[in-house]
């Protein structure tokens, strides 16, 4: 590395900020397919600087803007006022991943000074009372849902992440490392949204990625729901936003996957199936659901939890730290195992159905073979009856028709009664064989037979 390279890079990636910027990320409780979106790509809506080539090459994986609107500052209204902050600008953006997972972004810029307590109160309101955010006199999501022309009401999801880019005096206070106790109090007040007492705040835990902290120049600290990023240039800020966006979307997909997997397990246990066709329909439906879960885990989670999108140390440090704080890796592993177990149960049920059908067919084939053999044996009396009429016997009256049941009824009954008995017995045996296959799939009370999950070795 040439002399002075590292300092030049530090200057390029760090920059002073005069006004505070807060970017809010809200997961949405719906799926919006981004096909036909005419707003361009996410990479064209923010400044990414030297990160742009990486994001451009991976643009197919990135969320796609489906709604973008600049809002006049006085139109966005909080339920308890602005907490002493003056909103100077606000941009609304709704993005959707290729799998349809939607996230709402509010990019807010503030005018004048912003103190830590006011910022914490503003963050608390926009997080815990986000359902009461309004645009003019209407609920925010009602307006957004109308803009998107959705068929169902739009709702907030469970996941929120708020990125604070402090400016002015707040930035200077946070970057001042001469009084680390004061710095810890400010950071914890913002990151915990003012919900923890100020006494002992220096002992609270926040995550500070070591490679993102340069004393007096830059600082990155975060909890599960709030990040404080101070001293970074705009293109780094926007890169951090993309990282947080991926984490919020991935966490929402994991939560939905967990709920869907439990619902499928419950459907498998409670399904009342009385015929092979109903069981086939159930297996097909569960298999389709498992396939969707696997796609969600692969392209809705795994695609956003590594550093492949922006392979840079700055982004990777924040991504790794935030991912660990959210527990995404462990949740992903657990969810993947749940889907595997569900797949095993479906396969076991399908195998049980195949075995039951094979046993039923075997029983039916044995019955048919027995009937054919019996028919062959019973064919002898009709043959004798025909011979009886064909010979000139004393019991055969040439003047009477062979259809005269009054004279020959006993002979006909002797010839055909065994056939009738054979047909009746065969019919009931075949019905019993058909019902016997269902008894292997459903218990005697009519409910489905539980299929145990495959056992794993005790040491795994």
Query: Percentage of helical residues?
Result: 40-55%
Total of DSSP H or I helical runs spanning 4+ residues: 12
Q: Which structural category do the helix and sheet elements fall into?
A: alpha+beta
Strand order of the largest sheet: 2-4-5-1-8-10-9
Which percent band covers the strand fraction? 5-15%
Order of helices and strands: HEHEEEEHEEHEHHEEHHHHHH
Task: Characterise the protein shown here.
This protein has 460 residues and is an alpha+beta fold. The protein has three domains: 15-248, no CATH class; 249-353; 355-438. Helix content is 50%, strand content 14%. The protein contains twelve helices and ten strands. The strands form two sheets. Strands 2-4-5-1-8-10-9 form a seven-stranded mixed β-sheet, with helices on both faces. Strands 3-6-7 form a three-stranded antiparallel β-sheet. Helix 7 (234-270) runs antiparallel to helix 8 (276-301), helix 7 packs parallel to helix 9 and helix 8 (276-301) runs antiparallel to helix 10 (328-378). The two termini are 46 Å apart.
For this entry, give a set of tags.
seven-stranded mixed β-sheet; 3 domains; alpha+beta; single chain; 460 residues; disordered N terminus; three-stranded antiparallel β-sheet; 10 strands
Short description:
By secondary structure, this protein is α+β, with helices and mostly antiparallel strands. The protein has helices spanning 5-13, 52-57, 116-128, 140-148, 168-175, 180-191, 234-270, 276-301, 313-326, 328-378, 380-390, 405-438; strands at 21-31, 64-71, 76-77, 86-96, 101-111, 134-135, 138-139, 156-165, 219-222, 226-230.
